[in-house]
């Protein structure tokens, strides 16, 4: 793969994958620890409404997608706080309506000519320099916020009642986390697409959790695993002429199976 790095599109793809890995490592850890995987899936699929809105209005797709995703994410966050017993149903509705809205808006767009596959399964090989800078800015902002509020998020993630007793402003921090998640998901969609984004957000943190004794170690290990899965998947897609986003997720899935197998195999061996 070294020789192909002379091409700018592959350099951009590699940088996009590494930046997405940092975002995945941080936000994926928050998703897994706070058990909001379904909510993150709702945000990812509702984002398709933003893609349709951007093309319909003639905006840059990132503007429409981030705006629509933020709106959907805040609605979902409010619901999970006020009506937890109905949250999964309402999130499912927003999930479906968001995707349907995107499809209808694309149908209504004059001169519609959009490659839906690039949004459903990622378009890492076509990431421009401007989007790389945007991903860098988002990643830096997320990293800075998490470092600043690390102790508060640590308390919130493991014991919400204890966090309240400590004087942590639970609701504002929760909404801020959802906002970061929504923006992060939009960035990751470019790498693996909105259908596969949940896998990259959950598989590395799931594996990392088994070998981490603190939240920060889990974030670091998750970022490293995401980077390994992304680079390996990118190399396989180039070598075998496969879809890059799907290749990355299959590598991550293989890593999950290996981790799951070792988790169940090693205790049995030690028992003998």
> In one word, what is the shape?
globular
- The percent of residues in helical segments reads over 70%
The counted number of beta strands is: 0
Average pLDDT, rounded to a whole number, is 86
Oligomer: single chain
CATH superfamily: ABC transporter involved in vitamin B12 uptake, BtuC
Largest sheet: none
Count of folded domains: 1
Q: Tell me what portion of residues adopts beta-strand conformation.
A: under 5%
CATH architecture: Orthogonal Bundle
Alpha plus pi helix count: 12
User: What is the CATH topology?
Assistant: ABC transporter involved in vitamin B12 uptake, BtuC
Alpha carbon gyration radius: 19 Å
Low-pLDDT runs of 5+ residues are none
Structural class: mainly alpha
CATH domain class name: Mainly Alpha
Q: Give the termini distance in whole angstroms.
A: 43 Å
Order of helix and strand elements from N to C terminus: HHHHHHHHHHHH
Descriptive notes:
The protein is an all-alpha fold and 272 residues long. The protein has a single domain, classed as ABC transporter involved in vitamin B12 uptake, BtuC. The protein has twelve helices and no strands. It is globular, with a radius of gyration of 19 Å.
Provide a quick synopsis of the model:
It is built from 12 helices and no strands.
List the helices and strands and how they pair.
Blueprint: H1 8-33, H2 37-57, H3 61-82, H4 87-108, H5 116-120, H6 129-148, H7 150-158, H8 160-165, H9 170-192, H10 197-210, H11 215-240, H12 244-271
